Amino acid sequence: MRITAAVLALAASVAPIATWAQEVTIETARGPVTLEANPESVAVYDMAAMDTLDALGVVPTGRIDNLRLKRLEHLDSATPVGTIFEPDLEKLAGLNPDLTIVGGRSAPKLQDVAQLSNAIDMTIGEDIIGDSRKRLAAYGTIFGLENKAAQMDAALQAKLDKVQAEAKNQGTALVVLTNGPKISAYGVGSRFGWIHNAVGLPQAAQGLAVDPHGNAISFEFIAEHNPDWLFVIDRGAAIGAEGESAKDTLDNPLVAQTNAAKNGHILYLNAADAYIAGGGYQAMMEMLDQVDAAFGADS
């Protein structure tokens, strides 16, 4: 969306941003940025950012139009200011936030929203765990919640330590995404490969390419590599699409022959957490809780 003269005029007509007493420097996806601390009004175009801010107790005044996560439904009172792909610049100008946060799918719109508000790109890259923790620390600094952010980070580390201890001698894992009847596998360094690092289970299939869309695989591929654990993300369920579910797709004789299926080690991760809010604090904790429960049930 182009910024029109009308939008800029609207931005100029609203009350000026208040002057804050303190400036802070934080790390963003595009390097360090210095901005004024404790913004009173924040517009957020990234689900992971909204998820982490919500865990910190920060309530945005502007949000994307479809939250898709039930635990964030209480944020419906915030003003919709566009989608994760396309900001509504007129609504953003009318809201006149002190800070706008983009990330992931909305990151290409940074320069557009930056003409209307202080803006930062908080994209979480392939190092999901590391970047997630950096973003948590940055939000703590911005909103004067450093102690709470540190406590949350410690809780995340404790959960990682627990799951990794439980993962010893659990064998190998394969991380797959289903999209109706299609199946893709993700290895270390890829979008969902963080699960291997977080959980501590090695890949059942070596040599997977690092690709945002994963590696297209077949039932024969799953049977050949015979994972001890199969972690599954259902894209259709994440976006509310109709069609074949992940469980239906994997209800296959070849999959049934794997160690994962025989031992009840097929774990369907919360799809929205993995696919939409990946790297969000609550999303990370909930998925780790799922793995923890699965390992605990197995023992």
Description:
With 299 residues, this protein is an alpha/beta fold. The protein folds into two domains: 5-147, Nitrogenase molybdenum iron protein domain (Rossmann fold); 157-298, Nitrogenase molybdenum iron protein domain (Rossmann fold). The chain has helices spanning 5-13, 47-56, 89-95, 110-114, 128-142, 146-166, 194-199, 219-225, 235-239, 246-249, 253-256, 259-262, 271-275, 281-298, and strands at residues 23-28, 31-36, 42-44, 62-63, 79-80, 99-102, 119-121, 173-179, 182-186, 215-217, 229-234, 266-268. Strands 10-9-8-11-12 form a five-stranded mixed β-sheet. The longest helix has 21 residues, at 146-166.
Along the chain, the helix and strand elements come as HEEEHEEHEHEHHEEHEHEHHHHEHH
Structural class: alpha/beta
Number of domains: 2
Trace the largest sheet across and list its strands: 10-9-8-11-12
Q: Give the helix tally.
A: 14
Quick summary of this structure?
By secondary structure, the chain is an alpha/beta fold. The protein is built from 14 helices and 12 strands.
Core attributes:
299 residues; 5-stranded mixed beta sheet; alpha/beta
Topology diagram in text:
Elements: H1 5-13, E1 23-28, E2 31-36, E3 42-44, H2 47-56, E4 62-63, E5 79-80, H3 89-95, E6 99-102, H4 110-114, E7 119-121, H5 128-142, H6 146-166, E8 173-179, E9 182-186, H7 194-199, E10 215-217, H8 219-225, E11 229-234, H9 235-239, H10 246-249, H11 253-256, H12 259-262, E12 266-268, H13 271-275, H14 281-298
Parallel strand pairs: 3-6, 4-5, 6-7, 8-11, 11-12
Antiparallel strand pairs: 1-2, 8-9, 9-10
